[in-house]
Structure formats: structure tokens, C-alpha cells
């Protein structure tokens, strides 16, 4: 636990992890599913071209992309996974065609022996990689007819065909979501390509580009041996990691606090509020407003799942489609959580150093205005993009990129990237004097700055793709943003900030805090950086990604297993002295973070992380189960806790033992728990059973999702969502009633 050794260990882990991450990035680049130059029939007729597929991808992005169904399992959950849906419809068409031709009946009417004969022939045709040396793909006349038939279905679905009205309602698709039928046809070319990559063998291999995902027995898309082997390895790695960490924890030097060792009064009581620290107050008002807005959008989005395109009879989708509400629900969630954390950094930097750099308040105010412009501008652009008020080219820059968590247009991405570097500069100039004079806490301050710099740097991964980049490569970089930026270095930042707060409150010794945080960061990043690959098992990546991702994502769970000790310490802390009782609810937020870290990030995360589990679960409601409980339960509650800490130390007159504040936090946590266990978990488990028995296409189909049981389970979100929403509104009311002393 020597600090020097810990620094060496930290940089070694980061360096080696990114060497591997970048190496496989190169492998993904060279082995991504190719986009054929031309698709040609057996009589040399060109069906469509590479440019048609690429333009179709841009249309898919503009209409909402991953916010309208999913591709390769990534995206929304009401509409189908278009890759799996296309594959099944194409397979059934060909099987019916052959059954009529050879047995004069439908495929479903055949006996098992006849079905087996046709399925074997179908698998041979669809799994054969028919790309020639010129990059052209050759298809049979029968497959060309199937492509034409499925295309016709999607043209009817995305336009206004009355025959598919009920199906559109089930998918929460407004009629004429794409008004130009020629654009719909281009969109279908992209769907075909994503399905082709999911069912066609890689050159020289007998597995598809997506490692045989999705599960579709008709074309012999079944789990590979690698999925089973590496699932076993991930479980073994998890058990080893837990054992080693438990051994370490048993021998760790404890920072035991007693009431006698704690200060008699609040060390923050006489904290001098600099102009820039006071200027951060408005950030927290915006955080509160955005949180409430995000929850409202979540309620509307969830309701679309049971009433299609309406909201209690009102045709809401005509004015505010599902794609928009879900986009705003996710993106605004990221915005308010990040804003809370960024404001905390701006607030504590001068508090630590006691130094207010020149023009610091101006910088804080300028950054605030910029963040408002980004939030309003990007949200408006996404709405206009989905509503077809922009061309495809303009949409890429100012509209909707169609990529979950990175939906905002490229201009807004660049603007936010610059804003994050401005934030880093503001924090840096305020904290440097403390590094020069604070020998005891110097290492902790340096780690704080490193985490701030990483937050600014790693958002730049979202700028690494262009308008026509292969989807497999886009997914690689997108998960850098989602996993490394949101889940990775923000987590390090939060760990350091909480340690700072406890050190300044004289609860932790600086030397112990430094060693603990460095060790925790090493453990977290050791699994977390390469754990990024667990999102990419079935996104057109090589087997090595699956192997590394499964092993290292298991290690992400290891530090969460013993998190109960941290929660217990925080409970004791909140009850230790009279002045610390004033911090009861901010500390309880950290206890809540520990609980949801264990349940949402740990248990629900590991449920879907092993390769064989994710093979059947990817794209099902087990993913939002993990997403809601981890994103809000961990990062959201942490953002609320940091906000309350800052507001408390600003000197607000408020009864911090208030029943109002306590009730709101309990309702938020109870509501989130009910949302998970009454609805998301049972829906996800039933979908998993359907996926194992029939295939992903069925688990996401209207036929299955619109049964009475599934509708009842979706309606059961109402109790949890209502309690959660009331709790959030109560918290917002509490914050808005605070007054400066």
C-alpha cells in the first residue's frame, strides 16, 4: 500500500489495458462485416449498392436509430430488433417458397422431416459468404424474391398502410415516420446488411460476423463453443477475484473513526464562499429541473409501451414520437448527472485550495451558458431530425445521430467536448495552488486532476466516426463514451471527490484516503477498461473481443461484492456526532449508491454479462433493468448526494433532518426497487425464456409482447414509477425552497 507502488500499479494497468483495447480496435477495423459494393442476383441484376446501404444507415440514424428498435441488440425495446426481424422474415419467406414449390403447402404445415430438409438447405444458402474478390455479393433468385418481399413489408410498416396499423401501434411507430417511400427502401437495404452480417459466415470460418447472434434456429444461428467456454472462464475469474479481494480486505489497515477522534464542530462551518463557488448554485437549480424533466420523459416513454402512439387517448406520437421522448429521457439523464458532478468539481476546487483565480467566476458563468445552449440546442436538433425537418447531411451535424447515449449531432458533440476542456481548465487553475502547498494530500489532488482530464479527454471518442463509418467501428467508439466516459472515469472522479469531502471533514486521514482511492481505482480500472468489450460480443467483432470482455467484465463485479462494508461505515458515520447528523441525507445518498452498485451494477450487470447469458438476453428488458438500477441508482443518486453536500456547505438554512428530504429519498429508492422487481425483471425473464425457446425475433415480437400477461407486467410499472416520480418532485421542491443564510 505504499503510494509510490500504487502509482506504478495504476499507470501500468492503464497503459497495458489501453494497449489491448487499441489493438483490438485495429482488429475490429480490419475484420468488421464488409459493406458489399453491389448485391447481384444470379442473372446479373444489381439489386442495390454500397451507397444505398450507407444512405439507409443515415436514414435509420435520422429517424431515431437506436431509439426506434435495435440493431444487433443495441437500442430501444418496444419496436423489434430489425436485424433479427429481417432475418426471420427472410427465412420464413424462402422456406414457404420452397414448401409451396416442392410440397404444395406452407412450411408450417410440413412434417418434421420435411422441415429439417428445408432448414438445412436454407442454412447452407444464407450462411454461405458469397462475396467475390471485387467485393460484390451474389444472391440466388429465391433470395432476391425474399428481399423484395421483406422490403415491401417495411415500406408498408413505416408509411401508412392501414393493414399494419395494429403492428405500428405495438411498435409505438407513428404512421409515415419516414414520409418518402424511396427513403424507406434505402432504409431496408441497411436492415438487410445488418441481418446478412448476423447470419453469414466469416471467411474461412463457420460462425457469423456477429458470433451467431441472434438466436435463430432456422438458419443454424446457435451458441458457439466459445460462448460456453468463456462463460465458464468468467465465472472462475469472478470467484478468484472475490477471494483475492476478501484476503486483501482482511489484512487492510482500517481507518476506524470514533466520536472522540472526530472534530467537535463541522469543519465546513466557516468555509469561505468565493464568487465562483457561489456561481455554481445555478448549476444545481438546472440539475433539479433536468432531473424532473427526464423523469417526465421516462413516464411518457414507458406509457408508449402499453398504448402504442397515444397517451391516454391523446395522439401524442403525432407531435412527440417515442423516438424523441426516449432520446430526451436518456440524454437529459446524462446531462443532469454530469452537470451535478461538474458543478461539484467547480465548487470544491477553490474550497480545497482557498484560492480564487482571476476571472474564475466569469469562466464558471460562461460554461453554464454553454451547457444550457448544448442541452437546448441538441434536444431541439434531435426533435427536428426525427420529425424530418432536416436533410440527412444537416441531420448528422445538428440533428439526431441515432446512437444511444450519443444521440446529439456532431456540432453539439464538438461544442460539449470543448466545454469539458474549459471545465478542466477552470478546475486545474483553482487546484494547482493546493498541490504546491498541500504535501499531505498532494497525491489525492493529482489523482483528482487526472480524473478530470480523463473526463474531458474520453468524451472525444465520440468524434471518432463519420457519417458513413461501418456500424461495427461506430459501436467500438460509442462504447468508449458510454463505458469509459460515463461508467469509467466519472466513477474515478466521484471516488476521489467523496474521499476529499471526508478528508476535509477530518473523518479520513489524507494518507489513508490516498492509498485507498489509488487501490480502489486500480481494482476498478483493471476490470473496467477491458470490460468495455462485454458490450461488443455480437457487434461484428472477432472472438478475441469476446474472450477478453468476458473475463475482465467479471472483474468489474469484484469490488462491488464487499461494498456492504462501505455502506455500513457510512451508516455509522451518519450517526456519530451531532454535526454529522446534519449530513445524514447526503451520506444516505452514498449508502444508496453502495446498495445499487451491488444490486444494479453488480448482480443485474453480471446476470447479462457472461457470453452465453447475453447471447439470449441482449436486446431484452434485462438490459434496461440493469440500466435503470445502475445509471440512476448509482450515478444519479451519487449526483444527488454530491449536490446536497455542496448545498449544505454553502450555508443554506434548512432542516437537513427534514422529513421532506428523507421522504423524497426513500420514495426514489423504493420506487426504483418496485419498478425493477414488479415489471422490468419479470418482463426480461419471460423474454429470455421466449428467446431460448424460439429466438430473439419472437421475444421482441408483437405476437409475444402484446399478450395479456406482458401488458399486465408493463402496467405494473405504474406503482413504482408513481412513487419514484413523487419522490423526485418532492426532492425538487425541497431544493427550490432553500434560502441563503
Automatic annotation (TrEMBL):
It comes from Bacteriovorax antarcticus. The lineage of its organism: Bacteria, Pseudomonadati, Bdellovibrionota, Bacteriovoracia, Bacteriovoracales. Gene3D superfamilies: Cytochrome c oxidase-like, subunit I domain. This is Nitric-oxide reductase large subunit. Residues 36-215 form the Nitric oxide reductase subunit B cytochrome c-like domain. The chain crosses the membrane at residues 7-25, 227-250, 283-306, 328-350, 362-380, 412-432, 444-465, 477-503, 515-537, 543-565, 585-608, 628-647, 668-690, 715-735. It holds the Pfam family COX1. Keywords: Membrane, Transmembrane, Transmembrane helix.
Amino acid at each position: 500500500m505504499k503510494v509510490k507502488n500504487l502509482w506504478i500499479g495504476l499507470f501500468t494497468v492503464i497503459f497495458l489495458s489501453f494497449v489491448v483495447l487499441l489493438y483490438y480496435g485495429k482488429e475490429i477495423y480490419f475484420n468488421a462485416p464488409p459493406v458489399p459494393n453491389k448485391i447481384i442476383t444470379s442473372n446479373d441484376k444489381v439489386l442495390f449498392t454500397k451507397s444505398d446501404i450507407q444512405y439507409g444507415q443515415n436514414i435509420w440514424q435520422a429517424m431515431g436509430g437506436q431509439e426506434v428498435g435495435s440493431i444487433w441488440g443495441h437500442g430501444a425495446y418496444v419496436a423489434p430488433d430489425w436485424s433479427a426481424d429481417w432475418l426471420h422474415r427472410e427465412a420464413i419467406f424462402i422456406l414457404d417458397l420452397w414448401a409451396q414449390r416442392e410440397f404444395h403447402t406452407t412450411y408450417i404445415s410440413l412434417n418434421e422431416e420435411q422441415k429439417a430438409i428445408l432448414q438445412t438447405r436454407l442454412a447452407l444458402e444464407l450462411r454461405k459468404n458469397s462475396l467475390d474478390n471485387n467485393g460484390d455479393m451474389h444472391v440466388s433468385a429465391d433470395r432476391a424474391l425474399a428481399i423484395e418481399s421483406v422490403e415491401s413489408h417495411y415500406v408498408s410498416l413505416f408509411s401508412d398502410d392501414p393493414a399494419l396499423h395494429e403492428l405500428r401501434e405495438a411498435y409505438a411507430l407513428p404512421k409515415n415516420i419516414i414520409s418518402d417511400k424511396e427513403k424507406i427502401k434505402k432504409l431496408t437495404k441497411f436492415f438487410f446488411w445488418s441481418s446478412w452480417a448476423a447470419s453469414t459466415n466469416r471467411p474461412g470460418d463457420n460462425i457469423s460476423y456477429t458470433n451467431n447472434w441472434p438466436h435463430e434456429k432456422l438458419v443454424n444461428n446457435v451458441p458457439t463453443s466459445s460462448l460456453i467456454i468463456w462463460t465458464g472462464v468468467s465465472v472462475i475469474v469472478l470467484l478468484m477475484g472475490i477471494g483475492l479481494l476478501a484476503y486483501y480486505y482482511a489484512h487492510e489497515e482500517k481507518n476506524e473513526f470514533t466520536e472522540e477522534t472526530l472534530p467537535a464542530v463541522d469543519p465546513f462551518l466557516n468555509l469561505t464562499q468565493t464568487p465562483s463557488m457561489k456561481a455554481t448554485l445555478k448549476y444545481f437549480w438546472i440539475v433539479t429541473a433536468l432531473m424532473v424533466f427526464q423523469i417526465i420523459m421516462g413516464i411518457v416513454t414507458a406509457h408508449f409501451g402499453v398504448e402504442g402512439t397515444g397517451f391516454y387517448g391523446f395522439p401524442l406520437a403525432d407531435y412527440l414520437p417515442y423516438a424523441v421522448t426516449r432520446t430526451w429521457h436518456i440524454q437529459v439523464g446524462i446531462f443532469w448527472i454530469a452537470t451535478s458532478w461538474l458543478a461539484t468539481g467547480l465548487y470544491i476546487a477553490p474550497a480545497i485550495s482557498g484560492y480564487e483565480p482571476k476571472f474564475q467566476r466569469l469562466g464558471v458563468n460562461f460554461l453554464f451558458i454553454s451547457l444550457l445552449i448544448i442541452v437546448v440546442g441538441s434536444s431541439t436538433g434531435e426533435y427536428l431530425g426525427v420529425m424530418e425537418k432536416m436533410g440527412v447531411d444537416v441531420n448528422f451535424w445538428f440533428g439526431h445521430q441515432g446512437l444511444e447515449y450519443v444521440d446529439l449531432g456532431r456540432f453539439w458533440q464538438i461544442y460539449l467536448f470543448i466545454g469539458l476542456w474549459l471545465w478542466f481548465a477552470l478546475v486545474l487553475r483553482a487546484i494547482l495552488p493546493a498541490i504546491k502547498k498541500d504535501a499531505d494530500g498532494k497525491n489525492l489532488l493529482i489523482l483528482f486532476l487526472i480524473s478530470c482530464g480523463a473526463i474531458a479527454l474520453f468524451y472525444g471518442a465520440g468524434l471518432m466516426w463519420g457519417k458513413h463509418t461501418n456500424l461495427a467501428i461506430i459501436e467500438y467508439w460509442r462504447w468508449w463514451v458510454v463505458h469509459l466516459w460515463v461508467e469509467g472515469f466519472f466513477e474515478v472522479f466521484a471516488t476521489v471527490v467523496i474521499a476529499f469531502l471526508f478528508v476535509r471533514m477530518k473523518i479520513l486521514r489524507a494518507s489513508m484516503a490516498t492509498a485507498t482511492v489509488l487501490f480502489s481505482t486500480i481494482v476498478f480500472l483493471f476490470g473496467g477498461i477491458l470490460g468495455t468489450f462485454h458490450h461488443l460480443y455480437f457487434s461484428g467483432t472477432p472472438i478475441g473481443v469476446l474472450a477478453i470482455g468476458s473475463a475482465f467484465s467479471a472483474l468489474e463485479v469484484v469490488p462491488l461484492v464487499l461494498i456492504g462494508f462501505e455502506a455500513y461505515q457510512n451508516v455509522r458515520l451518519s450517526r456519530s456526532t451531532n454535526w454529522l447528523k446534519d449530513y445524514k441525507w447526503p451520506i444516505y445518498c452514498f449508502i444508496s449508491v453502495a446498495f445499487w452498485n451491488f444490486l444494479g451494477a453488480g448482480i443485474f450487470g453480471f446476470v447479462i454479462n457472461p457470453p452465453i447469458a447475453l447471447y439470449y438476453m441482449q436486446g431484452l428488458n434485462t438490459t434496461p433493468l440493469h440500466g435503470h438500477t445502475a445509471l440512476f441508482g448509482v450515478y444519479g443518486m451519487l449526483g444527488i448526494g454530491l449536490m446536497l453536500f455542496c448545498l449544505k456547505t454553502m450555508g443554506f438554512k434548512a432542516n437537513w433532518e427534514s422529513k421532506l428530504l428523507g421522504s423524497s429519498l426513500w420514495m426514489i429508492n423504493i420506487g426504483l426497487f418496485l419498478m425493477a422487481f414488479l415489471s422490468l425483471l419479470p418482463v426480461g425473464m419471460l423474454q429470455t425464456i421466449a428467446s431460448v425457446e424460439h429466438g430473439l425475433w419472437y421475444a421482441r415480437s408483437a405476437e409475444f409482447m402484446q399478450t395479456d400477461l406482458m401488458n399486465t407486467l408493463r402496467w405494473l410499472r405504474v406503482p413504482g414509477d408513481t412513487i419514484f416520480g413523487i419522490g423526485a418532485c418532492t426532492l425538487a421542491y425541497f431544493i427550490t425552497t432553500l434560502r441563503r443564510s
